[in-house]
Structure formats: structure tokens, C-alpha cells
Amino acid sequence: MLKRSLYAILAAIFLTGCSQGEMSDEKPVLTVSILPQKYFAEQIAGDNFKVNVLVPSGSGPETYEPTPRQIRDAANSKAVFITGHLLFEQTMIKNLKSRDEAVLFVDTSEGVDLIADDIVDHGDHVHIHGVDPHIWVSLREAKTQVETIAETIISVDPENEEIYRKNLRNLISGIEDLDERLTEKFRSAPKSSFLIYHPALSYFARDYGLTQISIEYAGKSPTPAHMKKTIDLAREKGLRDVIIQKEFERSSAKTVASELGGDVIEIDPLAENWLENMAEIGKKILKALNR
To answer: Within 10 Å of residue 190's Cβ, how many Cβ atoms?
Structure first.
């Protein structure tokens, strides 16, 4: 009986030691709002950090609500990177501050040339409402965002600064290379406007001198009058295809595309492999412009 108890004690000590060893080997955690930010952080941090993402694939960040577990995980992160203009981010910050959580929140929109979400011209004056939150769909503005992420990671882990700066240079080089290629292609495109259901590509459009025409109106499903106005404008500009994000309902987009004799082209601005996805988005817009 004594021998069996001794074995049990030794086993418990061994397992406890293993558990503590495993815990000490766990990577520090960074939390990001969306998958493109996960790509940015991982490209810079390499294998030195684990990166958690709040908005999972297939969910819309404009309406997302983090789970209590995600809030707890964020509280235990070395840094939380936010886009700066999504409603759930502001709610999360308030919740954590109300619990006296000392969390390092980093707004990656700092330094970005922001676009107004809605501009209403009243003739004698103009009202600007909110900020377009889709800052990650611009290759040019992404350079500011990745620099912010890199500086934060370096402040958290200064011993590996040289690695992080090298990774940052490589990432920016890839971004600039794609930007140059897209600039050349859009410069020679026969049209400069494209149809989209939800206006998520304002920053992308600005980079390449394009006009984004949205079917969705004021964040809501389009009225018949707005649909007709959009179709008439598209015909005037010679547009046929409609671009839509994968998480959106397609009926309105299909109706417009059918009226114009075109197709519905799906994109995913929130895909995790950000650089590859930006090239894919550019390719699909070019396809629509060349129809």
C-alpha cells in the first residue's frame, strides 16, 4: 500500500513538472481583430508569437460580437491590434477597461489617410459621417499598418528587433512589388469604374484612381429606386459585372448583373493570406473593367 502511494506521489510530481515545463514553453500571444491583421503580425513576428484573431472566417466585422472567451484571451495578450473603426473594437475596449484590465491596445489606423464613410452634400454645406473602416484593402495604406505592428512587436520583444525589422522589410518589399504591378495594369484598363454590392473597396479604388459604385445604400439593402438608379449608371459607364463579398446575400447583386447581362464575381477582402488575396482582388476587378 505504501509502495503504491509512493508511486502515485512520484507520478504526480513528474506530471506537474512536465506541465510547468510545457507552460513555460508557451509562446506569448498577440490578438488581432481580423484575419488580414493576423497575416501582418505573423509575417513580422515569425514563430515567436501566437496570433489570435477575433473575427473568424466567414463573419462580417461590422456586426461581429466577440465571445466572453475571446475577451478573456485578449486580456492576456501582449498586445491587441485593432483596425480602429469597427464597432465591436470600441465595445471590447470599454468592457476590458471597465474590468481594470491593463491591455495594450494598438490602433493600426494611426497615420492612415482615412476616408469618410458617408459624405452628404446639402448644397450650401457638406456633412461627413464616420470613417470607412476597410483600411486593410489598400496596399499603400497597409505599409503604415505593418510598420505600426512591427514597432509594437519590437517594443514587446526588443531582443529580436533585428529579426522583426528584416521581416518588415521583406513584407513591405512584397507589398510594393504588387502595388507597382497593379498600378501598371489599372493604368491601361479600358474603364475606371466598377460595381460592388457592399462598398468595401474604397481604399483600393483610391489607390488606382478607380470609382466604386455601390448597390447597397446607406448600409441597407437597396430600394427599387436605388437599384434602378444604379443599373442606369452602370449602363452609362458600360459596366456589366457585379462584385460581391462572400458573406453577403446575393439576390440584389444577381438582379443587377442579370439586368446588365453580366456575372456576379465573388471576392473575400477578409481572407487570411492577405498579399495573395490582394492580387486576386485586383485580378477580378480588372476582369470586370475589361468586359
So the answer is: 8
The architecture in CATH of the region 190-289 reads 3-Layer(aba) Sandwich (3.40)
> pTM, whole model, 2 decimals?
0.86
Average pLDDT over residues 31-41: 97
CA 26-32-34 angle, 5° bins: 130
Tell me which residue of 134, 148, 111, 254 sits closest to 205, measured CA to CA: 134
Distances from the Cα of 76 to the Cα of 30, 50, 73, angstroms? 9, 12, 5
The Cα diameter of the chain in Å comes to 93
Residues 155 and 30 sit within 8 Å (Cβ to Cβ): no
Tens of pLDDT, residues 183-219: 999 999 999 999 999 999 999 999 999 999 999 987 7
Quote the CA–CA distance of 58 and 164 in Å, as a whole number: 30
Q: How far is residue 104's CA from residue 82's CA, in Å, rounded to a whole number?
A: 11
* Helix residue spans in the chain (DSSP H): 2-24, 35-45, 68-75, 87-98, 139-156, 161-187, 202-207, 224-237, 251-260, 274-289
| CATH for 27-177, options being 3.20.20.70, 3.50.50.60, 3.40.50.720, 3.40.50.1980 | 3.40.50.1980
Beta carbons of 117 and 93 less than 8 angstroms apart: no
Kindly report, as residue ranges, where domains of CATH 3.40.50.1980 are found in the chain.
27-177, 190-289
Q: Which residue has the higher pLDDT, 112 or 57?
A: 112
User: How far does CA 284 lie from the centroid of its chain?
Assistant: 18
